[in-house]
Amino acid sequence: MIKTIKGTTSAGIQTAISEIRHNLGAASGMVFTLLVMPQPSDVDEVMDACLEAGREHPSRIILATDGSSRSDRMDAEIQVGEGIPGEVITLKFHGEVAQHKASALLPLLLPDSPVIAWWPGQSPAHPSQDPVGALASRRITDAMGEDDPVAGLVARAGCLAPGDTDLTWTRLTPWRALLASALDQPRGTVKSASVHAADGNAPGLLLAAWLRSRLGTEVRFEPNAGPGITEVTLTTDEGEIKVARTDGKMATFAAPGSPTLAVALRRRDIAALITEELRVLEADHVFAASMAELAADESLAELTQGV
Questions:
Q1: Are 236 and 190 in contact (CB under 8 A)?
Q2: Packed helices 202-215 and 173-183: angle between N→C axes, nearest 10 degrees
Q3: DSSP readout, the chain?
Q4: Domain locations in the chain as residue ranges
Q5: Which segments constitute the Glucose-6-phosphate dehydrogenase assembly protein OpcA C-terminal domain (predicted)?
Q6: Tell me, what's the pLDDT at 305?
Q7: pLDDT at 298 over 70
Q8: pLDDT in tens, 156-192
Q9: Do the Cβ atoms of 271 and 52 come closer than 8 Å?
Q10: Fewer CB in 10 Å around end: N or C, the chain?
C-alpha cells in the first residue's frame, strides 16, 4: 500500500503508518531504522538498493531528499505491505524545512533499535557531527560518490569517528579475502607490494593502506585505465603473489609453487554493497586501522596526486 501526504508533519506520518498497519493487519518486526540521504537524481537507484537490502534486513527505511518547491513544507510517501520489506518512507523537504531534517526525522526513529545513516553520494565533511549523523550509531558514506573520490576518502580518514564506515571498504571484501588467504600460506616474507587501479579509484588507495598496515612494508599505488582495481602484486622471498583482473569480473591468482587459478572477482553493485554492510553493525577495527594508516602516511595520498 502506498500513501502520499503533502504538507505533513512527523506526527502525521506516524499516524498514517499506524492506520496503514491497522488496515493491513501487518505486524512490525523491524530490526533498525535506516536514514538515507540520496541526491535527487539518485533516488530511484538508491530506492532499489534499499528494497533489495530490506529483504535480508526488514527495517524502517527513510529517504530524505530536498524538494524544489519554495514553500516551507515536508511531503511524504509511505509504502507498507506486499513487496515492501518493512516500511519505506520517502520525504521531500521544501524551502526552509530542508535545513532542519534531523528534527523531523527524530520522532520517526524506531524505539530501542539501532539507527543507521547512509549517504550514497556526497556526504558531510564530518558525518558524526552532522545533525542527521548524530542520530545514528552507524554512519555509512561512499567516497566513490564524491566529486573527487580519493580526496573524499583521505578527508574521511582524517576525521574518522567510532561508528563511521565507507562503502569503499566494502568493495574490497573479495580482494581482502583472497589476499588474506594467500598470506596465510608459508610463502616467505613480503618485501614489497603494489596495487594497480584506475585513476581516482579510492578502493585501490584503501587497499594499499590495508596492505601497508598489515605487512608493515612498502606498498606502491600505480594508476592505470582500470576498470577499478586491476592488479595486486606481493613480492616475497620465494617470488611474486599476483592477482590480476582486467575485465572487472574474473581474475587470475598466481603464487609460487601453485598453479594459476581463475577466480570470480566481480565488481558489485550498490545493492550488494549496502546489503553486506548492514549485516555488521559493530565497529570494524581492521577498517579503522587501515584508515588510520591512510591518515598517518602522507606518502600514500601523495601517490595519488594528479590522479
A1: yes
A2: 30
A3: -EEEESS--HHHHHHHHHHHHHHHT-------EEEE---GGGHHHHHHHHHHHHTTS-EEEEEEEE-S-SS-EEEEEEEESTT-SEEEEEEEEEGGGGGGHHHHHGGGSPTTS-EEEE-SSS--SSGGGSTTGGG-SEEEE-GGGSSSHHHHHHHHHHT--TTEEEHHHHHTHHHHHHHHHHHTS----EEEEEEEEETT-HHHHHHHHHHHHHH-SEEEEEEES-SSEEEEEEEETTEEEEEE-SSSSEEEEE-TTS--EEEE-PPP-HHHHHHHHTT--S--HHHHHHHHHHHH-HHHHHTTTT-
A4: 2-141, 171-302
A5: 162-291
A6: 44
A7: no
A8: 999 999 999 999 999 999 999 999 998 888 778 999 9
A9: yes
A10: N
| Residue 301 in grid coordinates | 595520498
Q: Is the distance from CB of 221 to CB of 195 less than 8 angstroms?
A: yes
Q: Which of 154, 150, 155 is nearest to 202 (CA)?
A: 150
Please tell me the distance from the alpha carbon of residue 73 to that of residue 13, in angstroms, as a whole number. 13
